[in-house]
Amino acid sequence: MLRKRPTPPPVLPFLLVAYALAGLLATDAYLPSLPILEGVFQVSAGDVQFTMTSYFAGVCIANLFYGPLSDGYGRRPILLLGGIGFLLATLTCAAALSIEMLMVGRFLQGATVCSLTVTSRATVRDLYDDTRVTRLNAYIAMAEGIAPALGPVIGAEILIQFGWRWNFFLVLALAGAALLALFLVLPESNVRRTRRALQLRPVLRMYLSILYTRDFLGPVLCAGLVFGSLMLYVTAAPFLIIDVMGYSAREFGLTQAAIVVVYVIGLVITTRFIGRLGPRPFLVSGLVLVAGSAVVMMALAWAGYGGYLAFVVPFGAYTFGIGLALAPMMTRALSVSPRATGSVASMLGTITMGCAFLGSHIVVWVYDGTTTPIVTAVAIISVLALIIYAATYWRHRPRHGP
Question: Most CB contacts within 10 A, which of 61, 121, 338, 381?
Fold first, then answer.
């Protein structure tokens, strides 16, 4: 049934960004605590790292369901109910008495926070034109950048002053406030709601149709691989910088903040000039910079320069490249099927978070207390992303989606 498209309130993008920021802090404020949890629960580094992997596993699995649900029942109820689940999952993490309970809480956090990811992307796609969508995606991506910048700094201070559990209580308070505000102002943007979107066979056909669309698969695979290599770094960095290189949790937080400032600069440049130059210059330059800086980081490690600056400085250039390329990739992928935006957003989230799951799990497999296997894996994945973009989109005229 086709309904009249609502006029979005001016405050809506800010609330979506605020809620996204709160959700992202669930991981980023928690990072400085990872080495500490080895002693708290008397477990190995791999067990603690698996709390990151379980989060991405929850996101990857649940993403497939939220899209069809939001296409059938609407964006608003799915976002709000998922938000309540996220608050409960965060409380479970804060109260965890064992590493197994923390793993379950993290899995549930991932499985519920993606209700926001899917519905917010679909809502933005429903309500705004392409240029505004790209800009709003960039703003949401800025929240995704601010969280890794502020999260470890805030998380380190909370860890030092109050203990690791209070990081989750902070997320609980911020997410609860943002969710309440969205309950008051969030419109229902899905004017094409249909219960047919909930039927298994049409859903599977839609997902297959989306996957066979080159305008979707190319940018999503690129984004997924880049995001997976980023999560590989994020999962390993606390142990490398704090345990191996001997820096404090506070110094690790400041390092993350400096790296992410560079990322946000890339996003700001994209937001400011994409309307004038179009998406391709940002996609190409961003992916080339990502692959090139990752290769430099790997070369330095293999040459015996595996210290702090050789690890962190190239990664700053890497995140700047992500800032240039991420929003255009997301916008292109989300535009392939206006009649099934929720399903497209679900598939996008599943693929990117599936890559994040693999990236975080690769750390468990290859981590040996040095930077070399980590930066080698990051370089291989980043070069593969550039190759996929070149093979799929170079001299390619976009086709219509399903």
Answer: 121
